[in-house]
Amino acid sequence: MSRMQGKVALVSGGAEGIGAAAAQEIIAQGGSVMLGDIQREKAKALAAALGERAAAWHLDVRDLAHWEAAVAATQARFGKLTVLVNCAGISEPGTVTEVTLDSWERTIAINLNGTFYGCRAAIPAMAASGEPCAIVNIGSMITIRPGAMFAAYSASKGAVQALTRSIALDCAEKGLPI
After folding, report:
1. Catalytic residue at 117?
2. Residues 39, 162, 139, 123: is their CA dihedral positive or negative?
3. Which of 24, 60, 121, 176 fits as disulfide partner to 67, beta carbons 3.0 to 4.6 Å?
4. What does the angle CA 114 – CA 65 – CA 22 come to, to the nearest 5 degrees?
5. Is 56 helix (H, G, I), strand (E, B) or coil?
6. Rounded to an integer, what distance in angstroms lies between the CA atom of residue 83 and that of residue 26?
7. pLDDT (tens digit, 9 = 90+) per residue, 55-68?
8. Interatomic CA distance for residues 34 and 74, integer angstroms
9. Which residues pair with 122 in a beta bridge?
């Protein structure tokens, strides 16, 4: 039996890069996947290439309502949600004194807030599945060895690491199989 047989994943940033690779592996391992991405047409094209166990949803990770709609669409299409892969992210260079405020806020909104919103929207649906579930929040080696030229990215990924630990503890204390 394949590792993902019967599992249903929602992958943010699923249209390309690490998110697309994760989606391809989920399909290869027998699962189904909803590709959530702001790049609607790329996500649709990849879903079509992956076959009937894949679908696409327009997802702006900076908006909790978009996440709630993506979770609902995943449940409607595949009957449940058991895996969340928070993969959407950006990295724009800039030291703490050089990064623009727009770049800082955009990076935090996508990398950190997007991860938080995804977990907030997905956890109740995952718990309702009654099955063992998993959340994969994509981090970075930069949390161990930050780069001076990536102040916003370093901060956002360090915060994602701490958020992930907090979510794991919360789910464990509530007895959720996540």
Report:
1. no
2. negative
3. 121
4. 45
5. strand
6. 10
7. 999 999 999 999 99
8. 6
9. none
Q: Judge contact between 141 and 153, C-beta under 8 A.
A: no
Catalytic residue, chosen from 104, 116, 117, 153, is: 153
Inform me whether the pLDDT recorded for 1 exceeds 70.
Answer: no
pTM for the model stands at 0.96
| Cβ-based neighbours of 126, under 8 Å, separated by 6 or more | 81, 82, 84, 133, 135, 176, 178
What is the C-alpha separation between 96 and 16, in angstroms, rounded?
A: 29
Q: Are 87 and 19 in contact (CB under 8 A)?
A: yes
Contact 138, 163 (CB under 8 A): no
At residue 124, the pLDDT reads: 97
Type of residue numbered 142: I
Task: Say if residues 163 and 137 touch (Cβ distance below 8 Å).
Answer: yes
Question: Both ends of the chain: CA-CA distance in Å?
Answer: 21
The neighbouring-strand residues paired with 58 are 37
- Asked if residues 124 and 68 have their Cβ atoms less than 8 Å apart, the reply is no
